[in-house]
Every structure is written in C-alpha cells, then in structure tokens.
Specification:
about 10% strand, globular, Glutaredoxin, Glutathione S-transferase, 4 strands, 8 helices, Glutathione S-transferase Yfyf (Class Pi), Chain A, domain 2, alpha+beta
C-alpha cells in the first residue's frame, strides 16, 4: 500500500492517484496541505519527507519520493508497465519529451490565468499579464492540437502512455478555466477519449480544476 501525501484536489496529487488507478496499485491518501490546516506542510514531520514543503510525496514501503512527474516515472518503472513507459530508448524519450514539455512550457503558461480567473488569488490582476499568458497558453494548446491531429489518438501515438497523465490533467484545466477557447478539435476529441477511462473520470475531471 503506497502512501500518497497531499490534498486530493491538488492537480499534482491527482496525477499520482490517476496513475495508481491505471496500474492497479493500492494507495492511501493523506491530505497534507488541505484547507483545514490539520496536516500543515510546515509540520516538521512533513518537512523531513520533503524540505520543499510541496505535494505530492509518496512513501513506498519506506522509499520516499517527491516531484510528481518523477513519481509517475518511478511507479511506471517499478510496476512493470512497459506499455505506459516503454523501455526502448527512443520510445521512452518521446514520452519523456512530452512530460517535460508539460512541466517546462505548458504549466507556466496557464498558471497566471488559472490563479487569476479560477483561484482569484491576490496579485494576479494585471490585465496585460493575463492577456499575454492566455495568448501563450493558446499557442501551446495549438502545438498539442497539431500533435493530436498527427496521432489521432493519444499524445505519443495510438496507445495511452505516461505522458497522457500530466497532459490530460492540463487539458482538463484548459476547459475548466473561463477564457475564450479557440476551436481545437483534436484537443476536444482527446478530452472525450480520456473521459472514457475510469481513472480520468475519477481523478482527472472530477469537478476540481
């Protein structure tokens, strides 16, 4: 039984929950960082597990890891899922490429619009910055749409892979944020395709943006 530490509404915690479901890995969630304040990230016990004070963290029989995408790779590699995370170098590199694209390019683009329009967070109210961020987000979603037009299925090809977990959650955030969405038919079809998977319905589009 893997311990997954982190509030269940966190997009990065949901990545781990979704993959555990795909791999049929039993897990228990401990909602560190939740709104009640009963499991604060400043707790010394949590800091001992992750000095960055961020979620998720997993404990797999005493092996502790943080950083959500690294956790995804670890779980796929240790649970024998070559279909999700291929062992062939070129196939694996393609999956890693899209996972890293999501973290390095797509995530920063949607952060400001999400914090401004969904979270209504203080300090995210500059119209010029919001407009530029939305434009960049749309540009990157067009890149994804072009890739999905080419594959006509999932991000890396015909089969669902590890890359679809972080990108699928980002696509849910795209549709959940009240901005003007350009017509991206391949992204829409991809979202519908992911929605046929039980894990995505439970942990991807479960009503939490």
């Amino acid at each position: 039984m893997i311990r997954v530490l982190g509030r269940p509404g966190s997009i990065n915690v949901r990545k781990v929950h979704w993959l555990c479901h795909e791999l049929d890995v039993p897990f228990v969630n401990e909602p560190w960082g939740d709104a009640t304040g009963t499991l604060p990230l400043a707790d010394p016990g949590f800091i001992a597990l992750n000095p960055n004070r961020m979620v998720p963290v997993i404990d797999d029989s005493g092996f502790v890891m943080w950083e959500s995408n690294s956790i995804l790779r670890y779980l796929a590699a240790t649970r024998g899922s070559s279909a999700l995370y291929p062992s062939a170098p070129r196939q694996r590199a393609r999956v890693d490429q899209w996972i890293d694209w999501q973290a390095a390019d797509l995530n920063p683009a949607w952060r400001y619009p999400f914090m401004s329009l969904v979270r209504r967070a203080p300090g995210y109210d500059n119209p010029a910055t919001l407009g530029a961020s939305v434009q960049r987000w749309c540009e990157l979603m067009t890149v994804l749409d072009q890739q999905l037009q080419a594959t006509q299925a999932f991000v890396c090809g015909e089969m669902f892979t590890l890359a679809d977990v972080p990108i699928g959650l980002s696509v849910h955030r795209w549709f959940s944020t009240p901005i003007e969405h350009p017509p991206l038919d391949a992204v829409t079809a991809y979202y519908d395709r992911l929605s046929q998977r039980e894990g995505f319905r439970l942990y991807g589009r479960n009503g939490t943006p």
